[in-house]
Fold this sequence. Notes:
Helix content: over 70%
Amino acid sequence: MAKPNYSFEKRQRELAKQKKKDEKDAKKRAEREAAKAGSAPADAPATDAGE
Length: 51
């Protein structure tokens, strides 16, 4: 019987965890940018009027 390769399994779990984290970060970043883009036009006139 072949010996299990625990290093490979661990690496695969780590890669899956990192991929999930990256996807979550990308989703959060997209939501933040969407909120920022939505509020930017409201903020822009206030900064122009203050100058």
